[in-house]
Amino acid sequence: MANAFDGGIVGRGEAVLSLRNVSKNFGAVQALTDIELDVYKGEVVALVGDNGAGKSTLVKILAGVHQPSSGTMTFDGVPVVLDGPSAALKLGIATVFQDLALCENLDVVANIYLGQELSPMALDEVSMEIRAWTLLRELSARIPSVREPIASLSGGQRQTVAIARSLLLDPKVILLDEPTAALGVAQTAEVLNLIERVRDRGLGVVMISHNMEDVRAVADRVVVLRLGKNNGVFTPDTSNQELVSAITGASDNSVSRRASRRAGTEHSAGEAHP
Amino acid sequence: MSTVSKPVASRAPLMDRADERLQDRSGIAGSVRGFIDRVRSGDLGSLPVVVGLVVIAAIFQSINPIFLSPNNLVNLLFDCSTIGVIALGIVCILMVGEIDLSVGSVSGFASALTGVLWVNHGWPVAGAILGALLVGALIGSIYAFLYNRFGMPSFVSTLAGLLAVLGLQLYILGSTGSINLPYDTALVNFGQILIMPGWVSSALVVVAGVVLLLTKMRNAARRRAAGLSARSTGAIVFQAAVITILLGLVVFYLNQARGVPWMFGLFVGLVLLMNYAFTRTRWGRILTAVGGNREAARRAGINVRMVYASAFVLCSTLAAAGGVLAAARLASSSQQAGTGDVNLNAIAAAVIGGTSLFGGRGSAYSALLGIIVIQAIASGLTLLDLSSSLRYMITGGVLAVAVIVDSLARRSRVSHGRA
């Protein structure tokens, strides 16, 4: 059963994070139904799907922001219940949210260290500022001053700050909700480089993206969600057409028909795509 | 093709000064330019209130020369301290974007409770004060519970509290309606006549200047050692000297009359303490964060409910402390304590001083500056022998202007990307 969701990649050792039969409803709306997801150490899982497919809801469940209505979650092989964002942070799950979740009235350093300030009774601003600069340098961030309030930064700069913040605690799993949506060319490349660097350090990365180019560039597996349900797991070399049809639902039961479709595509590839 | 070797920068750029778009803002001139830029972008700080204070002082002084006499100012400082402490609590609760409308009632209840426990029940005075403070904290924790558990807007819960606590105050005072606190006791002396000796207040000014200088110098040294930009020694010495001299002049002037009241000293001490808590502790940082973006703070793993609880409890406790001081000031616990304009003066002081009603932006000093403005108006109008009707109207007008300034500054900050 689990193999169906491994997308054929086996032998990666134990999944660092896995979900089984996770459902979430908001009132009458069933946002997620029986989601299964595995994240292995040292791999990038891309989570793709149309708007409203439940990607962000799933990320929020992984981040402890929402609690699932049913289903189980295991982290490092141990069943866990995330009753709040701090529980997820403590386990080592860091998240970059789509809305970034930054405090606009605080400066960059304060945002990066929000909730993790050094020496609580006499804030160590110097050490925090240095670490903030170091993190931002690693991301090749173009931020002129870390002592300006977030409100004065552009969208891309804010995105970089949010990513820098997620790296602060040396997490085991990083969730990135649309990490490159607001970024310029250079920063997108930097973020993709960073994702690879993080993966090579043995971390699990879950990345939501609408940009198939980015997905293809870094993902080891592509998990498709459609209307709150799993709709197949693909390898990054899957054709665009196939991914799009899984995302939009042009093929209804992609998991069962995948193998045959794949065979068909390989045969007709030469003629269909000159 | 001979390339002239470019002059290499004489020293490695500082870590936080590496970006070429940054303008140099070191030294005294740089600080002044930075200040002007901040004000132009709507980050006014305490500038409006200082300007307002100068205008108020000029007007009243021109009408009645007694206004700025040292004696009148000493009385003004006595009057500032009670509501000022309450306003300090209001700053706390405004920082998280909530409000407490019951601070007047809570202070009145605390004042009544002090009298009842101390005079009627014969408790030691310290026990009575502690009891009043604890009851204040309890009231605050009830608001916090209602807010966190039921999502009850603080506007409504504290409005209900305003009436309920006022009822409690009338109830415990009973039919007599007021209790006179015995004269010649430590508490009443503290509220009415205890003044710092001249050498103590002068010494405190010098200590304040030295501490300011040393902490800024140490901080700058640490930053330089870590490869970060730091303010130049000249700028720091200049700032510390200006502040010390200004404070010294004020104290010297007050010492021409009786001097600086101990009660005002307590108030300023609380302001400094809260300022440290707001700016230099994790609690203050997350308090500001919750006021700015509650959901972001929650997702950063902050226990948002505890932050709200701490703000509510601190606000009510400081309101109770203000009530105890008011009882000492008036040497009585009466049904009138905490009623009338106490509530709105405390809130108005925080807002006039520059703490935003929208949350996430404020400073402990706003309670100090704001209450001085309000008491200056009250004192000036009393000297003119004007009725309280006019006093209310004028204070209301000043509050309206303060809120307009806050709103305009906020709009300007948004358009300058500093909201």
TrEMBL record, chain A:
<dbReference type="InterPro" id="IPR003593">
    <property type="entry name" value="AAA+_ATPase"/>
</dbReference>
<feature type="region of interest" description="Disordered">
    <location>
        <begin position="248"/>
        <end position="274"/>
    </location>
</feature>
<protein>
    <submittedName>
        <fullName>ATP-binding cassette domain-containing protein</fullName>
    </submittedName>
</protein>
<keyword id="KW-0547">Nucleotide-binding</keyword>
<dbReference type="Pfam" id="PF00005">
    <property type="entry name" value="ABC_tran"/>
</dbReference>
<feature type="domain" description="ABC transporter">
    <location>
        <begin position="17"/>
        <end position="252"/>
    </location>
</feature>
<feature type="compositionally biased region" description="Basic and acidic residues">
    <location>
        <begin position="263"/>
        <end position="274"/>
    </location>
</feature>
<dbReference type="GO" id="GO:0005524">
    <property type="term" value="F:ATP binding"/>
</dbReference>
<dbReference type="InterPro" id="IPR003439">
    <property type="entry name" value="ABC_transporter-like_ATP-bd"/>
</dbReference>
<keyword id="KW-0067">ATP-binding</keyword>
<dbReference type="InterPro" id="IPR027417">
    <property type="entry name" value="P-loop_NTPase"/>
</dbReference>
<dbReference type="InterPro" id="IPR050107">
    <property type="entry name" value="ABC_carbohydrate_import_ATPase"/>
</dbReference>
<feature type="compositionally biased region" description="Polar residues">
    <location>
        <begin position="248"/>
        <end position="257"/>
    </location>
</feature>
From TrEMBL, chain B:
<feature type="transmembrane region" description="Helical">
    <location>
        <begin position="390"/>
        <end position="409"/>
    </location>
</feature>
<comment type="function">
    <text>Part of the binding-protein-dependent transport system for D-xylose. Probably responsible for the translocation of the substrate across the membrane.</text>
</comment>
<protein>
    <recommendedName>
        <fullName>Xylose transport system permease protein XylH</fullName>
    </recommendedName>
</protein>
<keyword id="KW-0813">Transport</keyword>
<keyword id="KW-0997">Cell inner membrane</keyword>
<dbReference type="Pfam" id="PF02653">
    <property type="entry name" value="BPD_transp_2"/>
</dbReference>
<feature type="transmembrane region" description="Helical">
    <location>
        <begin position="125"/>
        <end position="147"/>
    </location>
</feature>
<feature type="transmembrane region" description="Helical">
    <location>
        <begin position="342"/>
        <end position="360"/>
    </location>
</feature>
<feature type="transmembrane region" description="Helical">
    <location>
        <begin position="260"/>
        <end position="278"/>
    </location>
</feature>
<feature type="transmembrane region" description="Helical">
    <location>
        <begin position="307"/>
        <end position="330"/>
    </location>
</feature>
<feature type="transmembrane region" description="Helical">
    <location>
        <begin position="154"/>
        <end position="173"/>
    </location>
</feature>
<feature type="transmembrane region" description="Helical">
    <location>
        <begin position="47"/>
        <end position="67"/>
    </location>
</feature>
<feature type="transmembrane region" description="Helical">
    <location>
        <begin position="193"/>
        <end position="214"/>
    </location>
</feature>
<feature type="transmembrane region" description="Helical">
    <location>
        <begin position="367"/>
        <end position="384"/>
    </location>
</feature>
<feature type="transmembrane region" description="Helical">
    <location>
        <begin position="235"/>
        <end position="254"/>
    </location>
</feature>
<keyword id="KW-1003">Cell membrane</keyword>
<dbReference type="InterPro" id="IPR001851">
    <property type="entry name" value="ABC_transp_permease"/>
</dbReference>
<keyword id="KW-0762">Sugar transport</keyword>
<keyword id="KW-0812">Transmembrane</keyword>
<keyword id="KW-1133">Transmembrane helix</keyword>
<keyword id="KW-0472">Membrane</keyword>
<feature type="transmembrane region" description="Helical">
    <location>
        <begin position="73"/>
        <end position="94"/>
    </location>
</feature>
